[in-house]
Amino acid sequence: MGALATLSLLLALRAAGVAGALLSPDFLFLDGELLPDGFSYGCGTSAYQIEGAWNEDGKVESVWDHFAHDKGKGHIAGDQTGDLAMDFRHTYKKDLPLFRRALGINLYDFTIAWTRVQTADGKPNQRGIEFYRDMMKTAAEHGMQTSCTLYHWDLPQRLQDKYHRWISKGNITRDFRDYAELAYNALGDLCDTWVTMNEPHSFCSEGYGPDTESAPGYAGPIDLTYQCMHNALLAHSAAVQLFREKKAQGKVRGKIGIKLDGSPGVPLNSSSQADIEAVTKNNDFGIGWVAGPITSGDYPPVMRTAMGDTLPKFTEQEKALLKGSYDFIGFDAYTSQWVTPTKGKCVSDSDAWPSCIDSFDARPRSNQLIGRPTGSSWNFQQDTTVYDGLKYLHERWGAKELIVGENGMAGLNETQLPINQFVRDADRIEWYRSTLLNVKRALHDGIPLTGFVPWSCISNLEWSSGYYNDFGLIRAKPGRNQTRTPKQSAAYLKGVLTRGNSIEPYNFVHQEL
Ligand code: FCB
Which family does it belong to (predicted)? Predict the structure, then answer.
Protein backbone atom coordinates (compact mmCIF):
# COMPACT_ATOMS: atom_id res chain seq x y z
CA MET A 1 0.00 0.00 0.00
CA GLY A 2 1.39 3.46 -0.89
CA ALA A 3 1.97 6.02 1.82
CA LEU A 4 -0.90 8.26 0.81
CA ALA A 5 -3.23 5.29 0.61
CA THR A 6 -2.13 4.37 4.15
CA LEU A 7 -2.96 7.88 5.31
CA SER A 8 -6.36 7.75 3.65
CA LEU A 9 -7.08 4.39 5.26
CA LEU A 10 -6.15 5.73 8.65
CA LEU A 11 -8.28 8.79 8.21
CA ALA A 12 -11.17 6.56 7.21
CA LEU A 13 -10.59 4.33 10.25
CA ARG A 14 -10.39 7.37 12.44
CA ALA A 15 -13.64 8.70 11.09
CA ALA A 16 -15.17 5.29 11.77
CA GLY A 17 -14.04 5.58 15.38
CA VAL A 18 -11.59 2.69 15.38
CA ALA A 19 -8.39 4.63 14.93
CA GLY A 20 -8.15 5.47 18.62
CA ALA A 21 -7.38 1.84 19.33
CA LEU A 22 -5.01 1.50 16.40
CA LEU A 23 -3.19 4.68 17.21
CA SER A 24 -2.75 4.26 20.94
CA PRO A 25 0.27 6.01 22.39
CA ASP A 26 2.81 3.25 22.07
CA PHE A 27 2.07 2.09 18.56
CA LEU A 28 3.73 2.80 15.30
CA PHE A 29 0.77 2.77 13.02
CA LEU A 30 2.95 1.51 10.24
CA ASP A 31 1.54 -2.00 10.70
CA GLY A 32 0.79 -1.49 14.38
CA GLU A 33 4.33 -2.10 15.54
CA LEU A 34 5.20 -1.53 19.19
CA LEU A 35 8.08 0.87 19.76
CA PRO A 36 10.42 0.02 22.63
CA ASP A 37 10.02 1.96 25.88
CA GLY A 38 11.92 5.22 25.86
CA PHE A 39 12.32 5.28 22.05
CA SER A 40 13.37 8.80 21.03
CA TYR A 41 11.89 10.51 18.03
CA GLY A 42 13.50 13.84 17.23
CA CYS A 43 14.44 16.09 14.38
CA GLY A 44 17.92 17.39 13.68
CA THR A 45 19.59 20.69 12.82
CA SER A 46 23.10 22.10 13.03
CA ALA A 47 24.34 25.50 14.15
CA TYR A 48 25.88 26.88 10.96
CA GLN A 49 23.06 25.57 8.82
CA ILE A 50 20.24 27.37 10.66
CA GLU A 51 21.33 29.90 13.30
CA GLY A 52 22.47 32.90 11.24
CA ALA A 53 23.61 35.77 13.53
CA TRP A 54 27.12 34.79 12.49
CA ASN A 55 28.78 37.72 14.26
CA GLU A 56 26.33 38.44 17.08
CA ASP A 57 26.58 37.58 20.80
CA GLY A 58 30.34 38.05 20.55
CA LYS A 59 30.48 35.00 18.30
CA VAL A 60 33.85 34.55 16.59
CA GLU A 61 34.54 33.36 13.06
CA SER A 62 34.32 29.65 12.22
CA VAL A 63 35.93 27.88 9.28
CA TRP A 64 32.51 27.83 7.60
CA ASP A 65 32.06 31.62 8.04
CA HIS A 66 35.50 32.07 6.55
CA PHE A 67 34.90 29.64 3.66
CA ALA A 68 31.53 31.18 2.77
CA HIS A 69 32.93 34.72 2.84
CA ASP A 70 35.75 33.74 0.49
CA LYS A 71 33.50 34.44 -2.48
CA GLY A 72 34.04 33.87 -6.17
CA LYS A 73 35.87 30.58 -5.58
CA GLY A 74 32.87 28.34 -6.06
CA HIS A 75 32.99 27.15 -2.44
CA ILE A 76 29.21 27.44 -1.98
CA ALA A 77 26.70 27.33 -4.82
CA GLY A 78 25.58 30.82 -5.80
CA ASP A 79 28.08 32.25 -3.27
CA GLN A 80 25.39 31.81 -0.62
CA THR A 81 26.29 32.01 3.06
CA GLY A 82 24.95 31.09 6.49
CA ASP A 83 25.19 34.72 7.68
CA LEU A 84 21.41 34.87 8.15
CA ALA A 85 20.50 31.25 7.38
CA MET A 86 17.08 30.47 8.88
CA ASP A 87 17.63 33.21 11.50
CA PHE A 88 17.02 30.58 14.19
CA ARG A 89 19.12 32.54 16.69
CA HIS A 90 16.26 35.04 16.73
CA THR A 91 13.30 32.79 15.95
CA TYR A 92 13.82 29.78 18.23
CA LYS A 93 11.03 30.73 20.60
CA LYS A 94 8.55 30.37 17.75
CA ASP A 95 10.36 27.64 15.81
CA LEU A 96 10.67 25.11 18.61
CA PRO A 97 6.96 24.92 19.44
CA LEU A 98 6.30 24.63 15.70
CA PHE A 99 8.77 21.75 15.35
CA ARG A 100 6.91 20.01 18.14
CA ARG A 101 3.47 20.80 16.75
CA ALA A 102 4.22 19.93 13.14
CA LEU A 103 6.29 16.79 13.74
CA GLY A 104 5.15 15.51 17.13
CA ILE A 105 8.81 15.03 18.19
CA ASN A 106 9.89 14.34 21.77
CA LEU A 107 13.51 15.36 21.13
CA TYR A 108 15.22 18.36 19.61
CA ASP A 109 18.64 17.35 18.29
CA PHE A 110 20.84 20.41 17.73
CA THR A 111 24.49 21.40 17.69
CA ILE A 112 26.37 23.97 19.72
CA ALA A 113 28.53 26.43 17.81
CA TRP A 114 31.96 26.27 19.44
CA THR A 115 32.47 29.82 18.16
CA ARG A 116 29.37 31.15 19.95
CA VAL A 117 30.19 29.79 23.40
CA GLN A 118 33.96 30.30 23.55
CA THR A 119 35.73 33.64 23.10
CA ALA A 120 38.84 34.10 20.97
CA ASP A 121 41.01 33.72 24.06
CA GLY A 122 39.34 30.50 25.12
CA LYS A 123 36.99 31.90 27.81
CA PRO A 124 33.26 31.13 28.16
CA ASN A 125 31.14 33.59 26.19
CA GLN A 126 28.14 34.20 28.46
CA ARG A 127 25.90 35.74 25.79
CA GLY A 128 26.30 32.72 23.52
CA ILE A 129 25.82 30.32 26.42
CA GLU A 130 22.65 32.17 27.45
CA PHE A 131 21.19 31.62 23.98
CA TYR A 132 21.65 27.86 24.21
CA ARG A 133 20.37 27.76 27.79
CA ASP A 134 17.22 29.66 26.91
CA MET A 135 16.75 27.62 23.76
CA MET A 136 16.91 24.35 25.71
CA LYS A 137 14.52 25.68 28.35
CA THR A 138 12.11 26.57 25.56
CA ALA A 139 12.41 23.03 24.15
CA ALA A 140 11.71 21.56 27.61
CA GLU A 141 8.69 23.83 28.14
CA HIS A 142 7.26 22.41 24.94
CA GLY A 143 7.78 18.78 25.86
CA MET A 144 11.06 18.07 24.09
CA GLN A 145 14.26 16.62 25.45
CA THR A 146 17.50 17.91 23.96
CA SER A 147 20.44 16.21 22.29
CA CYS A 148 23.48 18.49 22.19
CA THR A 149 26.23 17.88 19.64
CA LEU A 150 29.54 19.52 20.48
CA TYR A 151 30.90 19.66 16.96
CA HIS A 152 29.20 19.82 13.59
CA TRP A 153 32.04 21.04 11.38
CA ASP A 154 32.31 24.70 12.51
CA LEU A 155 35.85 24.80 13.89
CA PRO A 156 37.01 28.21 15.18
CA GLN A 157 38.94 29.81 12.30
CA ARG A 158 41.63 31.00 14.72
CA LEU A 159 42.56 27.36 15.43
CA GLN A 160 42.71 26.58 11.73
CA ASP A 161 44.92 29.65 11.10
CA LYS A 162 47.25 28.84 13.93
CA TYR A 163 47.70 25.09 13.67
CA HIS A 164 45.53 23.66 10.82
CA ARG A 165 43.73 22.12 13.70
CA TRP A 166 42.31 18.75 12.75
CA ILE A 167 45.55 17.70 11.12
CA SER A 168 47.95 19.06 13.74
CA LYS A 169 48.92 16.32 16.09
CA GLY A 170 48.35 16.69 19.79
CA ASN A 171 46.93 20.15 20.40
CA ILE A 172 43.48 19.61 18.94
CA THR A 173 42.77 16.98 21.57
CA ARG A 174 43.54 19.50 24.29
CA ASP A 175 41.53 22.27 22.60
CA PHE A 176 38.54 20.03 21.97
CA ARG A 177 38.65 18.71 25.54
CA ASP A 178 38.76 22.29 26.89
CA TYR A 179 35.80 23.23 24.73
CA ALA A 180 33.91 20.13 25.83
CA GLU A 181 34.59 21.02 29.45
CA LEU A 182 33.27 24.54 28.89
CA ALA A 183 30.10 23.13 27.30
CA TYR A 184 29.58 20.48 30.00
CA ASN A 185 29.96 23.12 32.74
CA ALA A 186 27.73 25.67 31.03
CA LEU A 187 24.98 23.41 29.68
CA GLY A 188 25.32 20.11 31.56
CA ASP A 189 22.27 20.71 33.74
CA LEU A 190 20.05 21.12 30.67
CA CYS A 191 21.31 18.69 27.98
CA ASP A 192 19.63 15.29 28.14
CA THR A 193 21.99 13.57 25.69
CA TRP A 194 25.38 14.46 24.26
CA VAL A 195 27.06 13.76 20.94
CA THR A 196 30.77 14.53 20.64
CA MET A 197 30.88 15.07 16.91
CA ASN A 198 28.93 14.69 13.71
CA GLU A 199 30.33 12.57 10.88
CA PRO A 200 34.12 12.84 11.13
CA HIS A 201 34.23 10.81 7.90
CA SER A 202 32.54 13.75 6.12
CA PHE A 203 34.44 16.62 7.66
CA CYS A 204 37.82 14.89 7.26
CA SER A 205 37.35 13.64 3.71
CA GLU A 206 35.67 16.82 2.49
CA GLY A 207 37.75 19.28 4.51
CA TYR A 208 41.32 17.90 4.26
CA GLY A 209 42.99 15.92 1.48
CA PRO A 210 42.52 15.30 -2.24
CA ASP A 211 38.74 15.79 -2.48
CA THR A 212 38.05 18.99 -0.56
CA GLU A 213 34.69 20.62 -1.06
CA SER A 214 34.02 21.73 2.53
CA ALA A 215 35.65 24.14 4.96
CA PRO A 216 38.49 24.63 5.52
CA GLY A 217 39.20 23.22 2.04
CA TYR A 218 42.75 22.22 2.99
CA ALA A 219 43.97 20.40 -0.12
CA GLY A 220 46.75 17.82 -0.06
CA PRO A 221 47.46 14.10 -0.13
CA ILE A 222 45.22 11.41 1.33
CA ASP A 223 47.43 11.26 4.47
CA LEU A 224 45.79 14.53 5.59
CA THR A 225 42.36 12.91 5.56
CA TYR A 226 43.55 10.02 7.71
CA GLN A 227 45.45 12.32 10.07
CA CYS A 228 42.32 14.41 10.52
CA MET A 229 40.30 11.33 11.40
CA HIS A 230 42.99 10.07 13.76
CA ASN A 231 42.97 13.34 15.68
CA ALA A 232 39.18 13.54 15.63
CA LEU A 233 38.96 10.07 17.19
CA LEU A 234 41.44 11.03 19.91
CA ALA A 235 39.52 14.26 20.58
CA HIS A 236 36.29 12.26 20.75
CA SER A 237 37.70 9.80 23.28
CA ALA A 238 39.08 12.64 25.43
CA ALA A 239 35.66 14.33 25.48
CA VAL A 240 33.97 11.05 26.44
CA GLN A 241 36.46 10.40 29.23
CA LEU A 242 35.82 13.88 30.61
CA PHE A 243 32.06 13.39 30.32
CA ARG A 244 32.28 10.20 32.36
CA GLU A 245 34.31 11.97 35.06
CA LYS A 246 31.78 14.82 35.20
CA LYS A 247 28.91 12.38 35.28
CA ALA A 248 30.43 10.58 38.26
CA GLN A 249 30.51 13.99 39.98
CA GLY A 250 26.84 14.64 39.07
CA LYS A 251 27.72 17.61 36.83
CA VAL A 252 26.28 16.21 33.59
CA ARG A 253 23.62 13.61 32.96
CA GLY A 254 22.36 11.28 30.25
CA LYS A 255 24.37 9.41 27.65
CA ILE A 256 27.11 10.35 25.24
CA GLY A 257 27.70 9.07 21.73
CA ILE A 258 28.94 9.97 18.26
CA LYS A 259 27.22 10.23 14.88
CA LEU A 260 28.88 8.55 11.96
CA ASP A 261 28.07 8.28 8.30
CA GLY A 262 28.99 5.96 5.47
CA SER A 263 27.24 4.22 2.60
CA PRO A 264 26.59 0.53 3.19
CA GLY A 265 27.73 -1.66 0.30
CA VAL A 266 25.48 -3.70 -1.98
CA PRO A 267 27.24 -6.35 -4.14
CA LEU A 268 27.39 -5.21 -7.76
CA ASN A 269 26.68 -8.79 -8.75
CA SER A 270 24.69 -10.44 -5.99
CA SER A 271 25.77 -13.95 -7.00
CA SER A 272 29.49 -13.12 -6.98
CA GLN A 273 31.32 -14.20 -3.80
CA ALA A 274 34.04 -11.62 -4.50
CA ASP A 275 31.47 -8.85 -4.65
CA ILE A 276 29.83 -10.06 -1.45
CA GLU A 277 33.22 -9.98 0.30
CA ALA A 278 33.85 -6.51 -1.10
CA VAL A 279 30.79 -5.34 0.81
CA THR A 280 32.47 -6.00 4.17
CA LYS A 281 35.58 -4.21 2.99
CA ASN A 282 33.52 -1.24 1.84
CA ASN A 283 31.73 -1.08 5.18
CA ASP A 284 34.95 -1.44 7.17
CA PHE A 285 36.58 1.42 5.26
CA GLY A 286 33.55 3.67 5.26
CA ILE A 287 31.77 2.99 8.56
CA GLY A 288 34.28 0.85 10.50
CA TRP A 289 36.88 3.63 10.17
CA VAL A 290 35.10 5.25 13.14
CA ALA A 291 33.14 2.32 14.55
CA GLY A 292 36.24 0.09 14.84
CA PRO A 293 38.30 2.42 17.06
CA ILE A 294 35.47 3.44 19.38
CA THR A 295 34.27 -0.13 19.95
CA SER A 296 37.47 -2.20 19.72
CA GLY A 297 40.20 0.42 20.26
CA ASP A 298 41.72 0.23 16.76
CA TYR A 299 41.04 0.56 13.05
CA PRO A 300 39.59 -2.44 11.20
CA PRO A 301 42.46 -4.85 10.32
CA VAL A 302 41.59 -4.63 6.62
CA MET A 303 42.45 -0.92 6.65
CA ARG A 304 45.88 -1.57 8.14
CA THR A 305 46.58 -4.32 5.59
CA ALA A 306 45.56 -2.16 2.65
CA MET A 307 47.18 1.06 3.79
CA GLY A 308 50.18 0.19 5.94
CA ASP A 309 51.83 3.28 7.39
CA THR A 310 49.53 5.75 5.62
CA LEU A 311 47.12 4.93 8.42
CA PRO A 312 48.33 6.52 11.67
CA LYS A 313 48.82 4.29 14.71
CA PHE A 314 47.32 4.58 18.17
CA THR A 315 49.46 4.03 21.27
CA GLU A 316 48.33 1.37 23.74
CA GLN A 317 47.09 4.10 26.06
CA GLU A 318 45.09 5.73 23.27
CA LYS A 319 43.58 2.40 22.32
CA ALA A 320 42.46 1.82 25.88
CA LEU A 321 40.79 5.23 25.97
CA LEU A 322 39.08 4.72 22.61
CA LYS A 323 37.74 1.26 23.32
CA GLY A 324 34.13 1.54 24.47
CA SER A 325 34.16 5.36 24.24
CA TYR A 326 30.42 5.63 23.53
CA ASP A 327 27.07 4.87 25.10
CA PHE A 328 25.33 4.90 21.71
CA ILE A 329 26.26 5.28 18.06
CA GLY A 330 24.16 7.34 15.66
CA PHE A 331 24.15 6.05 12.09
CA ASP A 332 23.50 8.85 9.58
CA ALA A 333 21.98 7.23 6.51
CA TYR A 334 21.59 8.85 3.10
CA THR A 335 22.44 6.23 0.49
CA SER A 336 24.09 2.87 -0.26
CA GLN A 337 26.59 2.02 -2.97
CA TRP A 338 27.28 -0.89 -5.32
CA VAL A 339 30.66 -2.47 -4.65
CA THR A 340 32.98 -4.83 -6.51
CA PRO A 341 36.72 -5.61 -6.12
CA THR A 342 38.86 -3.05 -7.88
CA LYS A 343 40.47 -3.88 -11.19
CA GLY A 344 43.35 -1.49 -10.52
CA LYS A 345 45.83 -1.13 -7.68
CA CYS A 346 44.64 -0.80 -4.13
CA VAL A 347 46.70 2.07 -2.77
CA SER A 348 47.64 5.27 -4.50
CA ASP A 349 48.14 8.85 -3.43
CA SER A 350 45.23 10.11 -5.40
CA ASP A 351 42.65 7.51 -4.43
CA ALA A 352 40.56 8.92 -1.63
CA TRP A 353 39.55 5.42 -0.61
CA PRO A 354 42.45 3.04 -1.18
CA SER A 355 40.26 0.15 -0.11
CA CYS A 356 40.70 -2.32 -2.97
CA ILE A 357 37.09 -1.91 -4.00
CA ASP A 358 35.30 0.10 -6.64
CA SER A 359 32.08 1.69 -5.51
CA PHE A 360 29.27 3.35 -7.40
CA ASP A 361 26.08 5.08 -6.49
CA ALA A 362 25.03 7.17 -9.44
CA ARG A 363 26.62 4.71 -11.83
CA PRO A 364 24.53 1.82 -13.06
CA ARG A 365 24.34 -1.89 -12.44
CA SER A 366 22.62 -3.17 -15.56
CA ASN A 367 21.73 0.45 -16.13
CA GLN A 368 20.23 0.86 -12.67
CA LEU A 369 21.10 3.55 -10.20
CA ILE A 370 21.62 2.34 -6.62
CA GLY A 371 18.20 3.72 -5.69
CA ARG A 372 15.63 6.35 -6.49
CA PRO A 373 17.41 9.64 -7.24
CA THR A 374 16.59 12.78 -5.25
CA GLY A 375 17.47 16.46 -5.60
CA SER A 376 21.06 15.74 -4.54
CA SER A 377 23.75 13.90 -6.50
CA TRP A 378 24.74 11.69 -3.50
CA ASN A 379 21.34 11.01 -1.96
CA PHE A 380 19.45 7.93 -3.22
CA GLN A 381 16.50 6.06 -1.76
CA GLN A 382 17.75 2.50 -1.51
CA ASP A 383 15.36 0.45 0.55
CA THR A 384 17.90 -1.34 2.78
CA THR A 385 20.37 1.47 3.58
CA VAL A 386 19.27 2.12 7.15
CA TYR A 387 18.87 -1.55 8.04
CA ASP A 388 22.20 -2.55 6.45
CA GLY A 389 24.13 0.14 8.32
CA LEU A 390 22.55 -0.67 11.68
CA LYS A 391 23.04 -4.39 11.18
CA TYR A 392 26.69 -3.89 10.24
CA LEU A 393 27.32 -1.80 13.37
CA HIS A 394 25.57 -4.29 15.58
CA GLU A 395 27.03 -7.49 14.14
CA ARG A 396 30.51 -6.40 13.14
CA TRP A 397 31.29 -4.16 16.12
CA GLY A 398 28.80 -5.27 18.76
CA ALA A 399 27.38 -1.74 19.05
CA LYS A 400 25.35 -1.91 22.24
CA GLU A 401 22.97 0.94 21.47
CA LEU A 402 22.14 2.57 18.15
CA ILE A 403 20.03 5.40 16.84
CA VAL A 404 19.27 6.54 13.30
CA GLY A 405 21.20 9.77 13.81
CA GLU A 406 20.20 11.48 10.56
CA ASN A 407 18.11 10.40 7.59
CA GLY A 408 16.46 12.50 4.93
CA MET A 409 15.73 13.28 1.32
CA ALA A 410 16.91 16.29 -0.67
CA GLY A 411 14.43 18.25 -2.71
CA LEU A 412 15.67 20.49 -5.48
CA ASN A 413 15.22 24.19 -4.87
CA GLU A 414 12.22 23.70 -2.56
CA THR A 415 13.12 26.86 -0.66
CA GLN A 416 12.32 28.86 -3.80
CA LEU A 417 9.25 27.04 -5.17
CA PRO A 418 5.68 28.24 -4.65
CA ILE A 419 3.73 26.42 -1.95
CA ASN A 420 1.77 24.13 -4.27
CA GLN A 421 5.05 22.78 -5.66
CA PHE A 422 6.87 21.97 -2.42
CA VAL A 423 4.20 21.12 0.08
CA ARG A 424 2.89 17.86 -1.43
CA ASP A 425 6.19 16.02 -1.10
CA ALA A 426 4.93 12.50 -1.83
CA ASP A 427 8.46 11.40 -2.74
CA ARG A 428 9.70 12.36 0.73
CA ILE A 429 6.80 10.49 2.33
CA GLU A 430 7.83 7.46 0.30
CA TRP A 431 11.40 7.95 1.53
CA TYR A 432 10.32 7.96 5.18
CA ARG A 433 7.94 5.07 4.73
CA SER A 434 10.91 3.07 3.45
CA THR A 435 13.03 4.23 6.41
CA LEU A 436 10.38 3.24 8.93
CA LEU A 437 10.13 -0.22 7.39
CA ASN A 438 13.89 -0.46 8.01
CA VAL A 439 13.34 0.65 11.60
CA LYS A 440 10.68 -1.99 12.05
CA ARG A 441 12.90 -4.69 10.55
CA ALA A 442 15.82 -3.70 12.78
CA LEU A 443 13.65 -3.85 15.89
CA HIS A 444 12.30 -7.26 14.83
CA ASP A 445 15.83 -8.58 14.46
CA GLY A 446 16.77 -7.48 17.97
CA ILE A 447 19.07 -4.66 16.86
CA PRO A 448 19.28 -2.32 19.89
CA LEU A 449 17.79 0.71 18.17
CA THR A 450 16.59 3.38 20.58
CA GLY A 451 15.93 6.46 18.46
CA PHE A 452 15.19 7.98 15.09
CA VAL A 453 16.15 11.53 14.07
CA PRO A 454 15.03 12.60 10.60
CA TRP A 455 17.02 15.35 8.92
CA SER A 456 16.00 18.10 9.06
CA CYS A 457 13.45 19.96 11.19
CA ILE A 458 13.56 22.93 8.83
CA SER A 459 15.10 24.00 5.49
CA ASN A 460 18.71 25.05 5.89
CA LEU A 461 22.03 25.79 4.19
CA GLU A 462 23.11 22.47 2.71
CA TRP A 463 26.83 23.26 2.99
CA SER A 464 28.47 23.69 -0.44
CA SER A 465 25.12 23.10 -2.20
CA GLY A 466 23.76 26.25 -0.58
CA TYR A 467 19.99 26.51 -0.21
CA TYR A 468 19.40 24.69 -3.50
CA ASN A 469 19.14 21.28 -1.83
CA ASP A 470 16.45 21.24 0.82
CA PHE A 471 16.11 18.39 3.32
CA GLY A 472 13.66 20.30 5.53
CA LEU A 473 10.41 18.83 6.83
CA ILE A 474 9.26 22.39 7.45
CA ARG A 475 9.97 24.74 4.62
CA ALA A 476 11.29 28.26 5.05
CA LYS A 477 13.23 30.60 2.84
CA PRO A 478 16.55 31.80 4.24
CA GLY A 479 16.61 35.27 5.79
CA ARG A 480 14.71 37.28 8.36
CA ASN A 481 10.96 37.04 9.02
CA GLN A 482 10.30 34.12 6.68
CA THR A 483 7.13 32.04 6.88
CA ARG A 484 7.44 28.44 8.07
CA THR A 485 5.29 25.84 6.30
CA PRO A 486 5.32 22.17 7.24
CA LYS A 487 5.36 19.80 4.26
CA GLN A 488 3.13 16.76 4.02
CA SER A 489 6.06 14.55 5.00
CA ALA A 490 6.07 16.26 8.42
CA ALA A 491 2.44 15.31 8.92
CA TYR A 492 3.19 11.77 7.74
CA LEU A 493 5.96 11.29 10.31
CA LYS A 494 3.84 12.83 13.03
CA GLY A 495 1.02 10.50 12.15
CA VAL A 496 3.19 7.39 12.11
CA LEU A 497 5.18 8.10 15.21
CA THR A 498 2.79 9.80 17.59
CA ARG A 499 -0.66 9.57 19.05
CA GLY A 500 -3.80 9.38 16.98
CA ASN A 501 -4.87 12.89 17.81
CA SER A 502 -2.06 14.20 15.63
CA ILE A 503 -3.35 12.85 12.31
CA GLU A 504 -3.82 16.08 10.45
CA PRO A 505 -2.01 15.50 7.18
CA TYR A 506 -3.53 18.40 5.32
CA ASN A 507 -3.64 20.91 8.12
CA PHE A 508 -0.57 22.97 7.36
CA VAL A 509 0.64 25.46 9.89
CA HIS A 510 1.80 28.62 8.22
CA GLN A 511 3.75 30.44 10.82
CA GLU A 512 4.54 34.04 10.03
CA LEU A 513 7.61 35.34 11.80
C1 FCB B 1 24.79 15.17 6.65
C2 FCB B 1 25.18 16.36 7.48
C3 FCB B 1 24.04 17.34 7.67
C4 FCB B 1 23.30 17.56 6.38
C5 FCB B 1 22.89 16.25 5.79
C6 FCB B 1 22.07 16.36 4.54
O7 FCB B 1 25.91 14.50 6.18
O8 FCB B 1 25.62 15.94 8.75
O9 FCB B 1 24.56 18.52 8.21
O10 FCB B 1 24.05 18.31 5.52
O11 FCB B 1 24.03 15.48 5.52
Answer: Belongs to the glycosyl hydrolase 1 family.
